[in-house]
Protein backbone atom coordinates (compact mmCIF):
# COMPACT_ATOMS: atom_id res chain seq x y z
CA UNK A 1 0.00 0.00 0.00
CA UNK A 2 1.23 3.50 -0.70
CA UNK A 3 0.06 6.97 0.17
CA UNK A 4 -1.55 9.08 -2.54
CA UNK A 5 0.21 12.01 -4.15
CA UNK A 6 -1.86 14.59 -2.29
CA UNK A 7 0.05 17.50 -0.84
CA UNK A 8 1.22 16.86 2.76
CA UNK A 9 -0.38 18.79 5.58
CA UNK A 10 1.69 20.40 8.28
CA UNK A 11 0.35 18.38 11.22
CA UNK A 12 -1.89 15.51 12.27
CA UNK A 13 -5.52 15.81 13.32
CA UNK A 14 -6.15 14.82 16.96
CA UNK A 15 -9.69 14.67 18.35
CA UNK A 16 -10.90 14.46 21.98
CA UNK A 17 -10.07 11.11 23.56
CA UNK A 18 -6.51 11.11 22.25
CA UNK A 19 -7.41 9.61 18.86
CA UNK A 20 -5.52 10.57 15.72
CA UNK A 21 -7.58 10.71 12.53
CA UNK A 22 -6.16 8.78 9.56
CA UNK A 23 -7.82 9.08 6.16
CA UNK A 24 -8.34 6.02 3.97
CA UNK A 25 -8.81 6.20 0.22
CA UNK A 26 -9.91 3.05 -1.60
CA UNK A 27 -8.02 3.80 -4.81
CA UNK A 28 -5.84 6.65 -6.06
CA UNK A 29 -8.62 7.96 -8.33
CA UNK A 30 -11.37 7.67 -5.68
CA UNK A 31 -12.87 10.91 -4.43
CA UNK A 32 -14.45 9.49 -1.27
CA UNK A 33 -12.42 9.09 1.91
CA UNK A 34 -12.94 7.14 5.09
CA UNK A 35 -11.66 8.06 8.56
CA UNK A 36 -9.96 5.60 10.90
CA UNK A 37 -9.18 6.66 14.47
CA UNK A 38 -6.03 5.38 16.14
CA UNK A 39 -4.24 5.84 19.45
CA UNK A 40 -1.61 4.05 21.50
CA UNK A 41 -2.89 0.95 23.31
CA UNK A 42 -2.55 1.49 27.08
CA UNK A 43 -4.39 -1.21 29.01
CA UNK A 44 -2.52 -2.13 32.20
CA UNK A 45 -4.25 -5.52 32.51
CA UNK A 46 -2.62 -6.69 29.26
CA UNK A 47 1.04 -6.20 30.15
CA UNK A 48 1.79 -9.91 29.71
CA UNK A 49 -0.45 -10.47 26.66
CA UNK A 50 0.38 -10.43 22.95
CA UNK A 51 -0.17 -6.66 22.90
CA UNK A 52 2.88 -4.88 24.34
CA UNK A 53 1.93 -1.44 25.65
CA UNK A 54 4.72 0.48 23.94
CA UNK A 55 4.35 -1.18 20.51
CA UNK A 56 0.58 -1.64 20.02
CA UNK A 57 -1.68 0.74 18.12
CA UNK A 58 -5.44 0.61 18.77
CA UNK A 59 -7.63 1.45 15.75
CA UNK A 60 -11.40 1.80 15.39
CA UNK A 61 -13.82 2.29 12.48
CA UNK A 62 -11.91 -0.05 10.17
CA UNK A 63 -14.09 -0.65 7.06
CA UNK A 64 -15.35 -4.16 6.19
CA UNK A 65 -13.27 -4.44 3.01
CA UNK A 66 -10.03 -4.22 5.03
CA UNK A 67 -8.78 -7.63 6.11
CA UNK A 68 -5.92 -8.24 8.52
CA UNK A 69 -3.50 -8.53 5.60
CA UNK A 70 -4.68 -5.23 4.12
CA UNK A 71 -4.42 -3.46 7.48
CA UNK A 72 -0.89 -4.82 7.88
CA UNK A 73 0.05 -3.44 4.46
CA UNK A 74 -1.49 -0.05 5.24
CA UNK A 75 0.39 0.44 8.50
CA UNK A 76 3.67 -1.05 7.23
CA UNK A 77 4.66 2.38 5.92
CA UNK A 78 5.10 3.48 9.55
CA UNK A 79 7.40 0.57 10.36
CA UNK A 80 7.58 -3.24 10.36
CA UNK A 81 4.31 -4.76 11.59
CA UNK A 82 4.54 -7.85 13.78
CA UNK A 83 0.86 -8.81 13.91
CA UNK A 84 -2.67 -7.49 13.29
CA UNK A 85 -5.82 -8.55 15.13
CA UNK A 86 -9.31 -7.49 14.03
CA UNK A 87 -12.30 -7.87 16.34
CA UNK A 88 -15.98 -6.92 16.41
CA UNK A 89 -15.45 -4.99 19.65
CA UNK A 90 -12.55 -4.24 22.01
CA UNK A 91 -11.58 -7.01 24.40
CA UNK A 92 -8.82 -9.06 25.92
CA UNK A 93 -6.53 -11.08 23.69
CA UNK A 94 -6.42 -14.00 26.14
CA UNK A 95 -7.53 -17.21 24.45
CA UNK A 96 -8.42 -20.43 26.30
CA UNK A 97 -8.42 -23.84 24.67
CA UNK A 98 -6.99 -24.97 21.36
CA UNK A 99 -7.16 -22.78 18.29
CA UNK A 100 -9.88 -24.06 15.97
CA UNK A 101 -9.70 -24.25 12.22
CA UNK A 102 -11.79 -22.02 9.98
CA UNK A 103 -13.97 -25.06 9.24
CA UNK A 104 -15.18 -25.15 12.85
CA UNK A 105 -15.41 -21.44 13.67
CA UNK A 106 -18.54 -19.37 13.03
CA UNK A 107 -18.47 -16.93 10.14
CA UNK A 108 -17.32 -13.45 11.07
CA UNK A 109 -19.81 -10.63 11.08
CA UNK A 110 -19.55 -8.22 8.21
CA UNK A 111 -19.18 -4.69 9.50
CA UNK A 112 -16.78 -2.14 10.85
CA UNK A 113 -14.02 -3.54 13.07
CA UNK A 114 -11.63 -2.52 15.78
CA UNK A 115 -8.00 -3.51 15.37
CA UNK A 116 -4.79 -4.00 17.33
CA UNK A 117 -1.65 -3.37 15.26
CA UNK A 118 1.57 -4.57 16.91
CA UNK A 119 4.80 -3.04 15.54
CA UNK A 120 8.34 -4.31 15.90
CA UNK A 121 9.58 -0.90 17.05
CA UNK A 122 8.06 1.59 19.48
CA UNK A 123 8.96 4.50 17.16
CA UNK A 124 6.30 3.31 14.69
CA UNK A 125 3.57 4.38 17.11
CA UNK A 126 4.76 7.99 17.05
CA UNK A 127 5.05 7.90 13.26
CA UNK A 128 1.44 6.72 12.88
CA UNK A 129 0.12 9.28 15.37
CA UNK A 130 1.93 12.14 13.61
CA UNK A 131 0.75 11.21 10.11
CA UNK A 132 -0.94 14.20 8.40
CA UNK A 133 -4.72 14.01 8.09
CA UNK A 134 -4.72 15.27 4.49
CA UNK A 135 -2.46 12.46 3.28
CA UNK A 136 -4.75 9.43 2.83
CA UNK A 137 -3.65 5.82 3.03
CA UNK A 138 -4.51 4.15 -0.28
CA UNK A 139 -6.05 0.72 0.16
CA UNK A 140 -6.05 -0.70 -3.38
CA UNK A 141 -3.16 -0.04 -5.76
CA UNK A 142 -1.91 -1.63 -8.96
CA UNK A 143 0.72 -3.58 -7.02
CA UNK A 144 -1.71 -4.68 -4.28
CA UNK A 145 -5.28 -4.71 -5.68
CA UNK A 146 -8.17 -5.27 -3.28
CA UNK A 147 -11.19 -7.07 -4.65
CA UNK A 148 -14.72 -5.83 -3.96
CA UNK A 149 -18.20 -6.41 -5.31
CA UNK A 150 -19.06 -9.50 -7.35
CA UNK A 151 -15.46 -10.66 -7.70
CA UNK A 152 -15.02 -10.59 -3.93
CA UNK A 153 -18.22 -12.57 -3.37
CA UNK A 154 -17.18 -15.17 -5.95
CA UNK A 155 -13.83 -15.64 -4.23
CA UNK A 156 -15.49 -15.90 -0.82
CA UNK A 157 -17.87 -18.56 -2.17
CA UNK A 158 -14.99 -20.58 -3.59
CA UNK A 159 -13.07 -20.37 -0.32
CA UNK A 160 -16.19 -21.50 1.57
CA UNK A 161 -16.30 -24.79 -0.35
CA UNK A 162 -14.78 -27.53 1.80
CA UNK A 163 -12.38 -29.97 0.18
CA UNK A 164 -12.66 -33.45 1.80
CA UNK A 165 -8.91 -34.08 1.83
CA UNK A 166 -8.14 -30.73 3.50
CA UNK A 167 -10.93 -31.24 6.02
CA UNK A 168 -9.59 -34.72 6.85
CA UNK A 169 -6.12 -33.28 7.52
CA UNK A 170 -7.58 -30.65 9.85
CA UNK A 171 -9.63 -33.25 11.74
CA UNK A 172 -6.63 -35.59 12.09
CA UNK A 173 -4.45 -32.75 13.36
CA UNK A 174 -7.08 -31.71 15.91
CA UNK A 175 -7.53 -35.28 17.17
CA UNK A 176 -3.79 -35.72 17.58
CA UNK A 177 -3.62 -32.55 19.63
CA UNK A 178 -6.63 -33.70 21.66
CA UNK A 179 -5.01 -37.07 22.44
CA UNK A 180 -1.78 -35.34 23.43
CA UNK A 181 -3.62 -32.98 25.80
CA UNK A 182 -5.45 -35.93 27.37
CA UNK A 183 -2.19 -37.81 27.91
CA UNK A 184 -0.61 -34.76 29.53
CA UNK A 185 -3.64 -34.34 31.80
CA UNK A 186 -3.56 -38.02 32.81
CA UNK A 187 0.18 -37.78 33.52
CA UNK A 188 -0.38 -34.70 35.64
CA UNK A 189 -3.14 -36.40 37.66
CA UNK A 190 -0.97 -39.47 38.13
CA UNK A 191 1.87 -37.32 39.39
CA UNK A 192 -0.44 -35.55 41.85
CA UNK A 193 -1.73 -38.90 43.09
CA UNK A 194 1.81 -40.13 43.70
CA UNK A 195 2.65 -37.00 45.65
CA UNK A 196 -0.35 -37.53 47.93
CA UNK A 197 -0.28 -41.14 49.07
CA UNK A 198 -2.39 -42.48 51.93
CA UNK A 199 -0.90 -44.78 54.54
CA UNK A 200 -2.80 -47.58 56.28
CA UNK A 201 -4.10 -45.19 58.93
CA UNK A 202 -5.81 -43.04 56.29
CA UNK A 203 -3.50 -40.04 56.61
CA UNK A 204 -2.41 -38.18 53.51
CA UNK A 205 1.29 -37.76 52.90
CA UNK A 206 1.83 -34.15 51.81
CA UNK A 207 5.08 -33.42 50.00
CA UNK A 208 6.67 -30.05 49.41
CA UNK A 209 5.44 -28.50 46.19
CA UNK A 210 6.22 -25.30 44.35
CA UNK A 211 6.03 -22.00 46.16
CA UNK A 212 2.60 -20.45 46.52
CA UNK A 213 0.71 -23.80 46.41
CA UNK A 214 -1.12 -24.68 49.61
CA UNK A 215 -1.27 -28.24 50.90
CA UNK A 216 -4.62 -29.95 50.45
CA UNK A 217 -6.58 -30.58 53.64
CA UNK A 218 -8.07 -33.97 54.50
CA UNK A 219 -11.31 -34.64 52.69
CA UNK A 220 -14.46 -35.88 54.44
CA UNK A 221 -14.21 -39.25 52.70
CA UNK A 222 -10.62 -39.71 53.87
CA UNK A 223 -11.64 -38.90 57.44
CA UNK A 224 -14.47 -41.46 57.32
CA UNK A 225 -12.15 -44.15 55.98
CA UNK A 226 -9.64 -43.43 58.73
CA UNK A 227 -12.36 -43.63 61.42
CA UNK A 228 -13.70 -46.91 59.99
CA UNK A 229 -10.22 -48.45 59.92
CA UNK A 230 -9.55 -47.35 63.49
CA UNK A 231 -12.85 -48.90 64.70
CA UNK A 232 -12.12 -52.23 63.02
CA UNK A 233 -8.61 -52.20 64.41
CA UNK A 234 -9.87 -51.69 67.97
CA UNK A 235 -12.43 -54.51 67.67
CA UNK A 236 -9.78 -56.84 66.27
CA UNK A 237 -7.39 -56.03 69.15
CA UNK A 238 -10.13 -56.59 71.74
CA UNK A 239 -10.98 -59.97 70.23
CA UNK A 240 -7.34 -60.95 70.12
CA UNK A 241 -6.90 -60.07 73.81
CA UNK A 242 -9.98 -62.01 74.95
CA UNK A 243 -9.38 -65.14 72.83
CA UNK A 244 -5.65 -65.17 72.39
CA UNK A 245 -5.37 -69.04 72.67
CA UNK A 246 -7.73 -71.79 71.49
CA UNK A 247 -8.16 -73.20 75.01
CA UNK A 248 -9.16 -69.72 76.22
CA UNK A 249 -11.87 -69.59 73.58
CA UNK A 250 -13.18 -73.07 74.64
CA UNK A 251 -13.19 -72.13 78.34
CA UNK A 252 -15.09 -68.95 77.55
CA UNK A 253 -17.77 -70.97 75.73
CA UNK A 254 -18.03 -73.48 78.63
CA UNK A 255 -18.36 -70.67 81.18
CA UNK A 256 -21.07 -69.06 79.11
CA UNK A 257 -23.08 -72.32 78.88
CA UNK A 258 -22.71 -72.93 82.61
CA UNK A 259 -23.94 -69.42 83.35
CA UNK A 260 -27.04 -69.99 81.19
CA UNK A 261 -27.82 -73.31 82.95
CA UNK A 262 -27.41 -71.71 86.39
CA UNK A 263 -29.80 -68.92 85.44
CA UNK A 264 -32.29 -71.50 84.09
CA UNK A 265 -32.30 -73.46 87.37
CA UNK A 266 -32.77 -70.25 89.38
CA UNK A 267 -35.77 -69.34 87.25
CA UNK A 268 -37.32 -72.81 87.78
CA UNK A 269 -36.94 -72.52 91.56
CA UNK A 270 -38.48 -69.04 91.58
CA UNK A 271 -41.51 -70.24 89.56
CA UNK A 272 -42.01 -73.22 91.87
CA UNK A 273 -41.93 -70.95 94.92
CA UNK A 274 -44.53 -68.62 93.42
CA UNK A 275 -46.81 -71.58 92.68
CA UNK A 276 -46.57 -72.77 96.24
CA UNK A 277 -47.55 -69.35 97.48
CA UNK A 278 -50.48 -69.25 94.98
CA UNK A 279 -49.21 -66.03 93.57
CA UNK A 280 -48.30 -67.40 90.20
CA UNK A 281 -50.72 -66.02 87.57
CA UNK A 282 -49.38 -66.71 84.12
CA UNK A 283 -52.61 -65.51 82.38
Class computed from helices, strands and strand pairing:
alpha+beta
Distance between the first and last residues' Cα: 118 Å
Helix content: 25-40%
Number of strands: 9
Mean pLDDT: 78
Low-confidence stretches: 4-9
Oligomer: single chain
Helix and strand pattern: EEEEHEEHEHHEEHH
> Radius of gyration, rounded?
42 Å
Question: Major sheet, described briefly?
Answer: 7 strands, mixed
Number of helices: 6
Residues in β-strands, percent: 15-25%
Shape: rod-shaped
Report on the architecture of this protein.
- This protein is α+β, with helices and mostly antiparallel strands.
- The chain is 40% helix and 16% strand.
- It has 6 helices and 9 strands; from the N terminus they run E-E-E-E-H-E-E-H-E-H-H-E-E-H-H.
- It has helices at residues 68-75, 123-129, 149-160, 164-195, 220-242, 246-276, and strands at residues 13-15, 19-25, 34-40, 56-62, 81-87, 113-119, 137-138, 197-198, 204-205.
- The strands form 2 sheets. Strands 1, 2, 3, 4, 5, 6 and 7 form a 7-stranded mixed beta sheet that branches.
- Strand 8 and strand 9 (204-205) form a beta hairpin.
- The chain is rod-shaped and about 135 Å long.
- It starts with 12 loop residues before the first strand and ends in a 7-residue tail after the last helix.
- Mean pLDDT is 78; it is low at 4-9.
Write the layout of secondary structure elements.
Blueprint: E1 13-15, E2 19-25, E3 34-40, E4 56-62, H1 68-75, E5 81-87, E6 113-119, H2 123-129, E7 137-138, H3 149-160, H4 164-195, E8 197-198, E9 204-205, H5 220-242, H6 246-276
Parallel strand pairs: 2-7
Antiparallel strand pairs: 1-2, 2-3, 3-4, 4-6, 5-6, 8-9
Amino acid sequence: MAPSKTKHASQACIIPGGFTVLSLQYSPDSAARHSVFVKEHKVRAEKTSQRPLDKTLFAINIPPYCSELIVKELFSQFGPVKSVELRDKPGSSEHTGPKLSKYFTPAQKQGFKVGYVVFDNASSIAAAKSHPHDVPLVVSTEQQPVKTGIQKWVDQYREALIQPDKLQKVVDSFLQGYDKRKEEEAERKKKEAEEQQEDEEGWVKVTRGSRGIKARPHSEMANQRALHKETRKRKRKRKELVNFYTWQHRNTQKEHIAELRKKFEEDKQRIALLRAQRKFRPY
